[in-house]
């Protein structure tokens, strides 16, 4: 675990933004298309809210694919069907009955609330489909993976070149000023040598240097040893390229929707596959322009759809027949946050009782494409928080008496966790 | 995206250096053959490895090893695919179910984590009582070694479908030929199963159902049938008893299932009333240890005592014989008569005549304690039918046999006949959870599920129905008896539906099935009306028969018993039970002959203590009615009747057991005719020494009376006595020329314990029967490792909780003629504590020096009194262990718990050295994942029982009782989450919740409502070794005996 490739996020971001900037400069602005954007947008909105749970444009879901439906059916028929398909069937419309039978008698909801304009908007959207985005930054960057994955040696060489350049400039300036008549200085090397000679001659300085050296060495040795087993930044590769940024960040799914046991249990719980399927039963592919950068690879739609297919494989879901096969395969996630067995940690104590936000320990997960360990998870780190955090106990009957007593004892308004006993060994080690 | 990311640490590793690879793959290298190398001067001199090379190797290997050690493992987290609704990962679920293995019956609550049962606790709502074996049965579920996994035909595996087809064909063949087939089961006590069996017999009329109990109460059932017309055992409610006379009945042990709860309920000191219990017995039993008065009598004398008691109670004159304790029996009869309907007589003699006489006495007393209506159904075995079956099998009269969870090839006295006979059967099937001797002797071997994997119902007592439900998916390819029989009957319904149907028609009477399943039991509101039965029992004839058998006794008399740990031996492969020390001898991993001191001296048997602190024992060859068992180790048992010996059944199993568990001697060959008493026994000393693994070798308090205090009921009830100055006197010291309590003098400042919770555990020595359930509960809750016999022997047991047993007896020294009796001395010094009186009496009157006194005490008398004292970390407020720890690994919590941070401990063992209670345990080895300790923590099945909330300790650290801090923390967290204060008596520890007699009470003394708060201030409360000033948080209640004084 110690050998984890600590992605230097800063460098990566710099390189990426540099590439982005360059590409942006040379790229053209988006070319336009002859589409009524307002209508398309309105239609899309309605489609997403009312139709998308059963229909897709290009693919059969619960109901048929709807792209180009206007070419197949008349506008009047469609309006009648959408507003109340049961009535249409009852009227004996052959096409309506045929469709109903084709989909095994599963009837579509009636939408009497839609106006004709609404239906037309939706149909417009099904006809024109998604607006083609300008093939801007994203696409091109994706097409030039080497731009994103700029080799590290290149950066080092550049940095070295800059340093050398500075040195040369400095030396030139010095020479120029000396030529101009400034007193000759011994230069960096000469000064160091003189210092060394001085130290060699003076016993006291010698001893002092040795002691200083030993202390510095000890400091670094201890520093290194104390980092053994501290895995801040640990970012293992997961079996599925799951992006927390897309789920918790872009789509604002609550952390505890998936990690539901965090409020009840000591473990936050890795969601079981059926929780994924709550949404992914209907979401079998990502939006066209989605891209995820993970572990120096950029994953585009084609890659990400394959990742979603992995959920289907695990859940035993046949996306073509839209049914469970029963042939399941549990997902073996790699655990990111590992506490040693001798430390007891309970999520519910912190989440439910303490009201601590997940991000306090786990960091900005909603911004992480690939989750890494944000906090050191060392005992010192735990204790620091326990020492500093004042406890908000209002409304919890359990604390009523003890808090009053402790506040009186310590002469404070709000007691810290440590004052409540949160620093005792046995509270976490048993 | 590739997922096999390679992490590397050293350049050598990248280069593919083989030494790093070797280091990683071979963490534990073979021993270096230094002797071979260094011993040979020539090779040493010609070796090409120079000193410098050697240093280089050392340097490199050290560096490589330390680098390899830095690499942490990549851990996987594998969630469910579809998570069951009622499971929240990390939160325990509890299910009410029933354990019924044919010997132990109990309503229990099962704690499951992520679908794995990890602990069994009594279902107190249902009146459930768990003993050590029931507690430990959760580990037997995970017995990957002994449990049957697949159906077998002979040696080859076979599918269930094929097995069904073949067996049904054979059954039909036998049916058509009308050749008898026997279904042999243990006591099932299951109404719905009875129906399934009845249907099976209806389909195959040639089948007969025979019930076989390895440890039999058949004679009692026969006697009860003769007296009351129904074949069952009477039930007893000892809480109603005023006087209990037990003649050899170990009713706090396994006699008829055990009655410790109602017994303890009848002996609550706080009520001021206690039953008066007289025990007449030969072996020292748990019941005898708790008795107010124990009369030592060998079995033949017990018979006369029983008849004499009958004569004295009823005033009749059945034929009998005088015994040396006739006066005491007469006194007992008077007490019984005085108690009238509150008196009860029970006897453990498995003899129909003896049982008849006991029933007759109870009838004469009109005893309310005995219940002849709502009877006890937990022993239904019929010895006559079993004996007939064995004879028939031998004679070839029976052609087919189906056994279920019985092991007659091991547990029959004439097992050889049986084993020989079944070879000639046309069909023999063993349906069993265990791959035991019987399962290996039959043609077909079918795996059955454990109780915790099965559906079922149990009626242990008439009118009280219990439900059994699965708490885990079956681990192996098993099918339970009922489903097997239904299948063979040709039914297409499974047992679960049958059970539900049976309950809704016959049991529930409109009540909710879900509620019954949730509760685990259902009490029928209507009990069948009492039928009048005209008994034609001739007590006189019974007495004649009894006397005849008792008169035939010559030589030694053997009293076979079931041990607290193993019972009938079903769970012999359970390491927790093997390691549970016997409550009285304190020996684990063994059975042995118990012998009185006098006999041992006469026959030359000894128990020398070796220099490692363990004891050895001689072997004896024992012959009973022509059956000889050689090399039975002998332990000298104080309180054993002279002329009698005891031997525990259930040991000596070999088939299917791990080598470590194959301990002890199989005593079943002595268990002829299901009789636990065998006369005409001859003993012969054999050569060799047996190594015992006893937990506590010293037998007495050795004069340290502050450890355990006893008083009589009369003293406790006497309001005029101030306990602080009489029977519960604290240790007094001189301070500032004043006499003050020793515990008041202190080196340390007092902690402020008034804030928050402050946990205390109260242990009532009066209610503690020494049953050991708490010890197993502690093992299960706290992942306490099993160390094995060798380690036990050298005192490296890991038990966090042990039950110390102390003998006490009056010192009589014949060299010194006493000038006055102890009573007279006591009368002269009314203000002294009991122990103090004894001590001064010994010193001043008997003129024994301290050394002599020690010797005298070390040499317990023929019939010592026994007291049990559960001993665990006392969680001292001023703990001696805490002050000596150089790394502050053990520290004190505000809630009163003495905390132990294992990861901080460096293993100096100073704390154990400084602990006056000897309750700290050092991990000499890694007991988990270590082939040297091949018990439950070394295999994937056994590890499933581990409690995930408690860490498994590693080598080199100290551990001890934590006062179940994980449980108190969980209770606190639950209250916090629900936003409420902790309820009254909500705090529990594993031991206190396992304790059926209510001896252990745990709680928060800062909550005035908790039961323990009052107990801490009780007049009986005392701290062990209080004068040391440790201020323990475990408080004991003085043991009270009812001396039957006015």
TrEMBL record, chain A:
Pfam family, one: Cytochrom_CIII
Domain Cytochrome c: 38-130
Highest taxon, organism lineage: Bacteria
Keywords from the named record: Electron transport, Heme, Iron, Membrane, Metal-binding, Signal, Transmembrane, Transmembrane helix, Transport
CDD domains: Cytochrom_C3
Signal peptide segment: 1-32
TM spans (from-to): 153-173, 204-226
Molecular function terms, GO-annotated: electron transfer activity; heme binding; metal ion binding
Protein name: Quinol:cytochrome c oxidoreductase pentaheme cytochrome subunit
InterPro entries reported for this sequence: Cyt_c-like_dom (IPR009056), Cyt_c-like_dom_sf (IPR036909), Cyt_c_III_dom (IPR020942), Multihaem_cyt_sf (IPR036280)
TrEMBL record, chain B:
SUPFAM superfamilies referenced in this protein's UniProt entry, alphabetically: 4Fe-4S ferredoxins, Formate dehydrogenase/DMSO reductase, domains 1-3
Taxonomic superkingdom: Bacteria
CDD domains for the chain: PsrB (cd10551)
Entry GO MF terms: oxidoreductase activity
Domain 4Fe-4S ferredoxin-type, residue spans: 759-789, 864-895, 896-925
Family matches, as PROSITE patterns: 4FE4S_FER_2
Record-given protein name: Quinol:cytochrome c oxidoreductase iron-sulfur protein
Source species of the chain: Tenacibaculum lutimaris
